[in-house]
Amino acid sequence: MMEDRVSASKKDLLCLEMLEDSGGDDSDYEGFDEDHGEDLDDYYGVYSEEEALDVLLARLEDGDWPARRVALYTLGNLEPAALAQHVNCVVARLEDSHWDVRREALVTLAKVDPATLAQHADAIVARLDHEENYVRHSAMHALGKLEPAALAQHAGAVVASFEDSDLCVRGTALTTLGKLEPAVLAQHAGAVVAKLEDSCWDVRRKALMTLGKLEPATLAQHADAVLTRLEDSDRTVRKWALWTLGKLKPAALAQHANAVIAWLEDDEGYARAVALMTLGKLEPVTLAQYADPVVERLGDAHWHLRVAALETLAKLDPATLAQHANAVVASLEDSDRHVCKQALWTLGKLKPAALAQHAN
Fold it and tell me: In Å, how far are 100, 128, 163, 272 from 178, measured between CA atoms?
């Protein structure tokens, strides 16, 4: 594996030399492999693996910024352990005169092992204030590669980026914060909840995803805020709000069951499926109150939703299930074999006496 990666570095050395010949214009770099396959094969023998790496490191000081950027990209193809040996050279490029080289340095740093990356976390955090949004985004992505304990030391800087002017930075900041241990994440739950009002739908979605990583008891404290997103202007956000509610403990979820039931009539199959899955997390005695809307889904146009409805009904206590046994028996004649199999399995949840009534 290591030899293959270094051989790839040899190939990029030829690309670098071609780049130098073109005066630093990297517009022809794309597709170079396909156009110069024979040249590359001939070139492989020019450098040994060690020499190739030495030349690459030297290229980090090249006068043309595209050459420095490609050198960083190529170093990123090394195995993490090998790359770690040259991490200081990469870190030095965070001070490069060109922003795209600084961005590539951050991308390359994100490929080292988390322990090595943690040693340079302060330098990465400093780039969260960079004037270029691409640099800020790459810095946030790199922080997301830290282990939770190391990331926790920089949680404040991550939260501060919730207010970044760039929507990609804000979204990645939420994703990065979601990698913290739930107890640590809980300390910043209020800041995450605030992003449910973000102007960008994808940021709101990622805020819901991050809230879903909280412990259920902590999430319950913010359930009302999640519930408001069921009325979001964006369909994807509404579905993620439903999914996040499903992370609650049964007792807390029961308080919002009526809102979930309404989604069984949604015109999108996935939304109805999430609603059924969420209802299935209720305690049997609570689920019994909503059995009729679930039974109606046995007539859904999508077979996988009919299966989901049967799975949900199977979570009822046997006495309540027996009240809907005729509907389940009817599913034994479904046109889809998956539905038939699930109907048979659900009937198996009945008490023997109730099951005997449908033995034929």
Answer: 27, 18, 16, 27
Its pTM stands at 0.83
Task: Convert the pLDDT of each residue in 104-156 to its tens digit.
Answer: 999 999 999 999 999 999 999 999 999 999 999 999 999 999 999 999 999 99
> Which stretches within 119-249 are classed as H helix?
121-126, 133-143, 148-152, 155-160, 167-177, 182-186, 189-194, 201-211, 216-220, 223-228, 235-245
Instruction: Give the count of beta carbons closer than 10 Å to the beta carbon of residue 352.
Output: 8
Q: On the CB side of 211, how many CA atoms lie within 13 Å of its CA?
A: 35
Q: For residue 276, what are its two tokens? A: 């059924």
- The rounded distance, in Å, linking the Cα atoms of 54 and 56 is 5
Q: How far apart (Å, rounded) are the C-alpha atoms in residues 342 and 330?
A: 12
Give the separation between CA 14 and CA 70, rounded to whole angstroms: 11
Q: Which candidate, 69, 86, 92, places its Cα nearest to that of 19?
A: 69
Single-letter amino acid, residue 311: E
